[in-house]
Structures are given as C-alpha cells and as structure tokens.
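Task card 7
Instruction: Convert sequence to structure tokens.
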Amino acid sequence: MYLLSSLSDTAATSGDAPAIDEAAHWETCPGHAVCVVSAPWWKRENGELIRVRAYCVGWQAQGHFVRFARSSSGTTSGPKSEEATAERRRVVANNKASDAAQVVRRRFVSDLLQRTQLPADAIEYAALMIARFPQFVNDYTGRDILKEIFPTAVRQVEKVEQPGKVEATRALLAIGLQIGEHGLPRDFWRSPTKEYGGQKARGIRYLEQLRQWGYTLADVETEWLKGKGKTK
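Output:
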C-alpha cells in the first residue's frame, strides 16, 4: 500500500511527474483505499481532529509509478501501460454498468413491494434472508436502502393498528430484499460467485430470487452469476 500523493500514472526520475487525482483514482482504480487517522493531540488548521489519506493497494499491479523514485531502482516498474489502460477501462465500464443496473433493479423491487398480490414464496424468502444474515437487518447502509425501496409513505403496516397478513408479509419482504440489495455494492462484480460456509452469498441468492419473480438481469449481473465477472 502506498500513499496516493506519492504516486503517478507517469514514470519519472526526479519527482516531477504529476500526482494522481484522488477523485479519478477512486472512480477507476480497484486498489483505492483510505485511512482515517484521529489524534486528540494533533489539530489541523481548520479545527478538525481527523485526517483522511488516500492510498493505493497493489500500486504496481495497477500500473502506477512512484513520483520520487529513480526508474533504475525498480520501484517505478509496473505493468505495461496498455495493460493498465485496458484494466482501467474495464473497471470504469463495469462500475457504470453496475450503477445503471442498480437503478433498474431497485425500481423493480420498489414496484414489487407495492403490488396488491405479493409472490407466493415471499415470506419464505424473507425468513431465509433474515435468519441467515441478521447482522444486515438494521445497519446504517441497510436502513438507507430500505428507505429507498420501501418509503415510509407506502408502509401500510405502520398506518393501521392491526395490520393484516399481507401487510406484515410486505414489511418482512422489504427487509429480506434490503438484505439482498445490501449484498450488491457498486463493485459486486469483482467478488467470486461462491458459497460461504454452505450458504449462498446475499447478492447471489437475491438475484436468483428476483429472476424467478420476473426481473430481467443486466449483463453485468448475468456474467457475475456465471462466475465470469470475478477478478483474476
């Protein structure tokens, strides 16, 4: 792992190569990482007590160079620029495809939750997801997802004193879908589509279930389920 400000996409021998743009690196490089440092005894000029620093993990494999190292030292070497460029393009393309798929997928899920008649196996799916992945029921990211796919305005179960079976099922289904959506972050396509401890990963089970309920998978989702979207 190397400090991003000390890296460049251009080889140089005297430190005159331009530093990598942090925002662009976050968007395109799979090695992007940040470190948050908190020190009560240290204070920045703006009064903050923390500092966030950007790094690159596996910077040589990502095609970067050390700005202040001599090329003869060997520390500036990386893969061929053509390979690095091709990999960057692949990352950008897949991330854009993932973003587009998320919009369509969440719209499908939101519409599904507002149907008068829910899928026959809705409660079974919800119970399975909640039982196997309880740690994702009420975490910060999960709550944000739930607000998007199941807005408070449409939660009938919260509006009646004695909610019927359908509305109770709807609420549980929303949680089960939220858990599945939680398992598909922007870069989900990088992770191998394997089972863990005898249970399917959240995202895999979720996409398979949505497909059974009529959702048309995006290409990036289809390729991932086939196992072709994983990294080397």
